[in-house]
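Hi support team,

I submitted a single chain yesterday and got back a structure, but I'm not sure I'm reading the token output correctly. Could someone confirm the output below corresponds to the sequence I sent? I've pasted both exactly as they appear in my results page.

Thanks,
R.
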Amino acid sequence: MLLMPATDESSQEFAKLTVLGILGFHLIPGAVFTALLIFLSRFFIQHGLTAYLAELLLIPACLVPMLVGTMLVSAKRSGSRLSLGRLIGYRSPGTLGDYVGWPIVLFLCWALASLAVIPLSGRLEAWYLTWFPAQLGNHALVSGVVSSPSAQRRVTLVLAVLLSGLLAPLVEEAYFRGFLLPRMKHLGWLAPVLSAFLFGLYHFFAPWGLPVIFVAFLPIAFVVQARQNFRIGVVVHAMFNLVGVLTMFASSA
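Hi R., thanks for writing in. Yes, this is the structure output for that exact sequence:
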């Protein structure tokens, strides 16, 4: 079993994940998303579209139903009521500091830490792209957007802000830090470390990003666990993604 049985409805919402459950719940969605992205990105490129657009459209078409569906199926199997509000833990009321102060601190921590790991990610990408699908490399994604027709680029920008900048952070944080992290709290300080590391591995479609993702989400996971508020992660995650989107499209302006 992926979830250890609980003795009552309250504890059942936060039933402990087994080792198999921790690995499966974190990594299987990323593997499925990546497999579909490799296929769809090739199809899109053959028809004059971009691999980045394929990645964006898979967020509502694959990622969201997969993560939300996993939470609902897990609830049904454990006997919990099918309610996302009851499934997601770490929902303590937040303060202004939680939604303004902590995001600023965490974003600055990421900006500083990334300076040390971006070169490593670059070397990893160069190695991976000797055998990994080249159309999913950072340079290929940006080049595809830059060379795309202006109308397609404008549509892609709107979709990127809505899907990558807002929808994906909300759903991923609800799943990884709201649903999974509370069920790993029996691991103590190791839970946030595993959460950040496995979240990095979950990005199979950009495996070279593991160092950057790990240093970005390690402090987020600790803060979410300490404050018991997954919404902090949503805010910071959205900041990360929106900066990435704006940086990509600034180069294509």
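A quick pointer for reading it: The first helix runs from residue 9 to 12. Let us know if anything else looks off.

Best,
Support desk
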